[in-house]
Design brief:
single chain; 7-stranded mixed β-sheet; 6-stranded mixed β-sheet
């Protein structure tokens, strides 16, 4: 008996321990990756809400100066990872929050604002100046680096500005001046470069030097364009600096006493990370520039792996992951749920799909004749596909051999995109990351995929395309709706129906729409749309209830859930309900989706058997 019990224990351990160990090992791998990357990606600066709340809870400052410097007209970070800070749209949003809270501010730049000699650089700098004008900057100082540009260049840039350029010894120049005095509340604040004029000092409560003055006489504050720690010298000015490339927004609050003397101050940097919103108008400025920029970027400069053998073969070319799927049926669904597959959608969400420098690492074969082309919305080469790692596969598709395809084992190729600028810390954990692209792994299910997308992109879009009376669709909804409830507002869920509208409806027709199971299905589709519109907190429960009772009256489920049957019926009988359905089914028609159910996650189509582990026959 004891021996039998011992054998049972051993067998139990043999069955349970390997999966438990695998789960533990996977969690340790992820923790190690996250720890290394977090250390390589420190967030510099305070949270916007923390700083704003501090001002509102204490004594209001007399003057708040918001400042930048050494931006080199850097428009925004590439967006490759969440901790990246900076960007003109975020800066504009943060500034608006100060103003909306009633905090009076002055906005200035300390210099080192221009960068690059090419015409495209000049237009980038102009875009930056336009954005500063939209933010209502009061002045921009010109550093020695800025003044090295010819007057014709500086005049061109100033034409886009609504503020003065400050420079020492400006003389009679019509676009440069040595100082500007701004009034904020009851106080006059002078911003100067070079020596401080005695008269300016006399009429100002606070004198702020933009740049690095040689003589600190009469100066209360120095805003350096360089990155320095905020300090106060003995009997001298307050010194603050600026991180490069506009990574943060400087904040300097000043409190004046009854004698209009500087009593105390507070200095900090605002972290402009992904949690900060964006100004729509400034975002549009950048988008317009990217569109212009895309048409002028030499594609040859954006090609990946140009020195690799397969890429150099003229007779070779790109075939897309769809071609690989025919032979690699198990590997394809595993890849389809990885971040690589969604790489192009990342560019769409971040409005960088016009920038060749970004497109090259987020698509397949960009810059090559048979690779992805900017503007090709129907391209089959979106995302980081099989051929990015394994090389162009035209020859391999025609004659599959190990000699005409790469193994994908060379991780040094990964580092061409996952470099220190775009993926800090990646090189230290590249060996651990290879498991993420190991095709022997089981494909992600829907919960895992949504969690991955949320962690990476914030709020993924999940679309379910169905015919309401389709048995397989009902099965999918029963599995999907608990997942939707679990994630809640963290995902953007859209219920889409599959139907057609008759080209020439007859006066005898009950409805102008056609669905596989006739009018009852069309009617139920429309009712579900109306209930989703009028009862957003109950329509998922209605769909679950209705799926079990499609052979009975819909009113029973509606009444059970507290849905006003008369209200829904009244809406159903209006032309607005018909138009609502017409607009809804247009999405499936545009995408050519005919099978119910079909799931799209951020535009990617998935099989129900993969995401929901469901089996059945689609309705078409």
């Amino acid at each position: 008996m004891k021996r039998a019990i011992l054998v049972l224990i051993v067998l139990t351990l043999a069955v349970t321990l390997p999966p438990l160990y695998s789960q533990w090992a996977e969690s340790q791998r992820i923790k190690q990756i996250q720890a290394v990357k977090q250390q390589a990606r420190p967030v510099v600066g305070d949270r916007l809400e923390t700083v704003l709340s501090g001002f509102e809870s204490g004594e209001p400052p007399s003057v708040v100066i918001l400042y930048t410097g050494s931006t080199r007209s850097h428009l925004e970070p590439c967006g490759c990872y969440q901790e990246q800070s900076g960007g003109l749209p975020r800066r504009a949003y943060a500034i608006d929050q100060f103003r909306k809270r009633g905090i009076q501010t002055i906005l200035v730049d300390a210099g080192n604002i221009f960068d690059g000699d090419a015409e495209i650089d000049a237009r980038r700098c102009e875009t930056n100046i336009k954005a500063l004008a939209a933010m209502r900057y009061s002045a921009v100082a010109l550093s020695e680096s800025d003044l090295s540009y010819a007057d014709t260049y500086l005049k061109r840039q100033h034409a886009a500005a609504t503020f003065p350029f400050l420079a020492p010894d400006a003389g009679h120049n019509d676009f440069k001046q040595p100082f500007v005095v701004e009034q904020i509340g009851q106080h006059n604040v002078a911003f100067v470069v070079g020596e401080v004029d005695e008269e300016v000092a006399a009429q100002s409560d606070v004198v702020v030097a933009l740049g690095d003055p040689k003589n600190p006489k009469h100066i209360d504050v120095v805003i350096s364009p360089d990155e320095i720690s905020a300090t106060v010298s003995k009997d001298g000015p307050i010194y603050v600096g600026c991180p490069s490339e506009g990574k943060t927004l400087g904040v300097l609050a000043l409190w004046m006493d009854s004698n209009r003397e500087l009593a105390r101050h507070y200095a900090t940097e605002l972290a402009l990370t992904a949690e900060v919103g964006e100004s729509e108008s400034v975002r549009q400025l950048l988008t317009d520039f990217y569109r212009e920029f895309a048409s002028e970027t030499p594609l040859q400069d954006s090609r990946l792996f140009a020195k690799q053998l397969l890429e150099q073969q003229q007779e070779n070319g790109y075939a897309s992951a769809a071609a690989c799927q025919h032979c690699h049926e198990q590997e394809y669904p595993q890849w389809a749920a990885t971040r690589h597959a969604f790489a192009y959608e990342t560019l769409l969400k971040k409005e960088r799909y016009f920038d060749a420098r970004c497109v090259s690492c987020h698509t397949t074969g960009f810059g090559y004749q048979t690779g992805f082309q900017i503007g090709d919305s129907d391209s089959t080469l979106k995302g980081v596909q099989c051929e990015t790692c394994h090389g162009p596969g035209k020859q391999h598709v025609g004659n599959p051999k190990k000699s005409n395809i790469r193994s994908g084992a060379d991780t040094s190729l990964c580092l061409q995109c996952h470099d220190p600028k775009h993926s800090p810390g990646f090189a230290d954990v590249v060996a651990l990351h290879t498991k993420d692209v190991d095709h022997s792994r089981a494909p992600m299910n829907l919960e895992e995929l949504l969690a991955s997308r949320i962690a990476r992109m914030g709020k993924p879009t999940l679309e379910l395309f169905v015919m309401s009376h389709c048995p397989y669709a009902v099965q999918a909804e029963e599995k999907l709706i608990p997942i939707l409830k679990k994630f809640g507002d963290a995902i953007d869920f859209k219920l889409q129906f599959i139907a057609q509208e008759k080209e020439v409806p007859s006066t005898q027709d009950i409805t102008p729409f056609i669905s596989l199971r006739g009018y009852p299905e069309v009617a139920e589709d429309i009712r579900q749309l109306l209930i989703a519109q009028e009862y957003p907190d109950r329509y998922l429960d209605y769909i679950l209830c209705r799926g079990k009772k499609l052979d009975k009256s819909w009113e029973a489920c509606a009444q059970k859930l507290g849905i006003d049957v008369a209200k829904v019926q009244a809406l159903f009988d209006t032309s607005g309900a018909e138009q609502l359905f017409r607009e809804n089914i247009a999405r499936a028609a545009d995408l050519g989706i005919k099978a119910s159910p079909t799931i799209l996650v951020d535009g990617h189509k998935f099989q129900m058997s993969q995401l929901l582990r469901a089996s059945g026959t689609p309705c078409e």
